[in-house]
Every structure is written in structure tokens, then in C-alpha cells.
Design goal:
Elements lengths: L4 E3 L10 H10 L4 E3 L10 H7 L4 E3 L5 E3 L4 H9 L17 E4 L23 H30 L1 H44 L1
Parallel strand pairs: 1-2, 2-3, 4-5
Length: 199
């Protein structure tokens, strides 16, 4: 086939068959392709490899989902070079993330600092919650260490306080026990006295 260009703009495409594109590229002289204004949320890495043979590609107007799994796509859209030496994606400045971590942000504004993702792809809100939890645990640990240090430095005073507190408590308990014993002895004596009178 001697097809040099293919305009699929506004065709309501939601998926691209990688093998079909690969076949078209290898059986024709296709140099440009427009997939703008469709329903594509992502493109595959196989598509990327095939599209690298094009001189021009248009992708704006698709509802791309941008998250940690698609960093390669975002990087490729902004930096891909055509075999002719120019920029491959012609409308890269008009491509915006419609959903995902970087919703409503133009792809060309997503630099390396924004695209730092952990291996578990933690979204920013969850990352903030995790950071807060870690800070809370660390603060609690530091507070506990300070309490232990204060107790250790003032161990003499703490020992005296504990001794006084428990000594008073044990003395009070002994007094109560003695009082009970005295009451029981008096009761016994009264009972014996009563028995002796009846005899």
C-alpha cells in the first residue's frame, strides 16, 4: 500500500489494536497518523514502539488517565523524536491528563519532580496520611524516651515517692487488719462472757 497518512481524528476509538497498527506500518509507507479527539485513556508500549516509525502523530483530545503506571507514556509524549529528527507528537502541548494522579494537568508540564512514584504507586493523599502516621509514631517514641530519661535522672525522687506512696498504703491496710482483729477479739470475749453468765 502506498498510504502515507491516516486521519482517524474524532472516530470515537477507545482502544487501538497494536497488531493492526504494526501491520499497517510495515505494509505501507505511513508517515503520519492522527488519533486526536478520540476516547483513548492510554496507549500501550507496543503502540509506542510501532509509532516510533512515524514522522508525525497527533493525540490531543483523548481522555488520558495519568498515573504511576503510565509514566513512560507521559515521558514519551513529551520527548519522542521522529526518524526524520523532529518531534514525533505534534500536539504534545495540547494533551492533558483527564483522570488519575495528575488530573487536569497538561502532559508537557509534568516534570521529573512531579512524576516521582513509589514502587507501590501511593497516591498523594494516601502518602500524606502515611507521612502523618509516621510523624505521629516518631513523636510518641520521642516523648516516651524523654519520659524515661526524666525518670532515670530523678530516680531518687521517684523512688522516695513510690516508697512513701506504697508505705502509706501498706500501713493503712495493716491498721485496718489490726482493727478487724481487735473487733473480732472483743466480739469473742463478749460471747464468752455471755456464755459464762448463762452457766
Amino acid at each position: 500500500m502506498n498510504v502515507t497518512g491516516l486521519d482517524l481524528k474524532g472516530s470515537k476509538l477507545s482502544n487501538i489494536c497494536d497488531d493492526t497498527l504494526d501491520f499497517v506500518l510495515h505494509t505501507s509507507n505511513l508517515k503520519w497518523l492522527s488519533l486526536a479527539q478520540n476516547n483513548l485513556t492510554k496507549i500501550s508500549q507496543k503502540f509506542q514502539l510501532s509509532a516510533n516509525n512515524l514522522d508525525k502523530l497527533w493525540l490531543a483530545g483523548n481522555p488520558f488517565h495519568c498515573d504511576c503506571d503510565m509514566i513512560w507514556m507521559i515521558d514519551w509524549i513529551g520527548n519522542a523524536t521522529a526518524p526524520s529528527g523532529g518531534r514525533l507528537v505534534q500536539d504534545y502541548q495540547d494533551i492533558t491528563c483527564v483522570s488519575g494522579l495528575w488530573k487536569d494537568i497538561p502532559v508537557f508540564k509534568l516534570n521529573d519532580s512531579v512524576l516521582e512514584c513509589t514502587t507501590s504507586a501511593i497516591p498523594p493523599k494516601h502518602l500524606q496520611n502515611l507521612t502523618g502516621l509516621i510523624l505521629g509514631v516518631c513523636s510518641g517514641f520521642i516523648f516516651l524516651c524523654l519520659v524515661i530519661i526524666l525518670v532515670y535522672k530523678n530516680r531518687g525522687s521517684v523512688r522516695q515517692w513510690v516508697y512513701k506512696h506504697f508505705e502509706q498504703k501498706s500501713t493503712t491496710e495493716e491498721s485496718v487488719d489490726r482493727g478487724c482483729l481487735l473487733d473480732e477479739e472483743e466480739a469473742c470475749e463478749e460471747l464468752q462472757t455471755t456464755n459464762n453468765i448463762h452457766r
